[in-house]
Amino acid sequence: MLLSRLDGVLQIVMGWTNSHLHQFIIGGRYYGLPYPDVDDTMEVTDERTVRLDQAAPKAKSRFIYEYDFGDSWEHEIAVEKILAPEPDVKYPRCLAGKRACPPEDAGGCGAIRSSCRPFAIQSIPSMKRCCSGLAGTSILKRSTYVA
Question: Which of 15, 49, 63, 103 is the most buried (most CB within 10 A)?
């Protein structure tokens, strides 16, 4: 699977609309779409030319998927296992979900923190770091998946 396709999968499972820039940070290298109008001092490898198994070839590999540079949501992606594909199975496929992602255009950690009423994000790893100490239940409706 190309990293560009992984971005599409992540957009679907997060319930986002692909309205913002994104990048993958893997082993200190940046992968994304080339945007000539964006800071060109940073070297970015075109994600449409790199497969996931090339960028993260081993089980236990971890990398960052950053979405919406304004909100700067950083999600750690972990390669738990690498299995041989099963015949007659369509991929990717959802294996599990946890209802644990920030909503599109939430405003980032600062906005979530300042607008938190009695709902919390204790079960949402990417939001837990910036909203630690809040208590309650999550009102977020989207799910994250392992695919």
Answer: 63
Sign of CA dihedral 41, 49, 1, 61: negative
0.90 exceeded by the pTM? no
The class that CATH gives domain 3-92 is: alpha beta
DSSP state of 113: H
**Over the stretch 80-126, which tens digit does the pLDDT of each residue have?**
888 888 899 888 887 777 656 777 787 777 776 666 543 444 444 55
Distance from C-alpha of 105 to C-alpha of 115, rounded to nearest angstrom:
13
d(C-alpha 122, C-alpha 138), whole Å: 8
Tokens of 76: 């750690």
Domain-wise residue ranges, the chain: 3-92
Local structure of 7: helix, strand or coil = helix
Using CA atoms, how far apart are residues 118 and 86, in angstroms rounded to an integer? 45
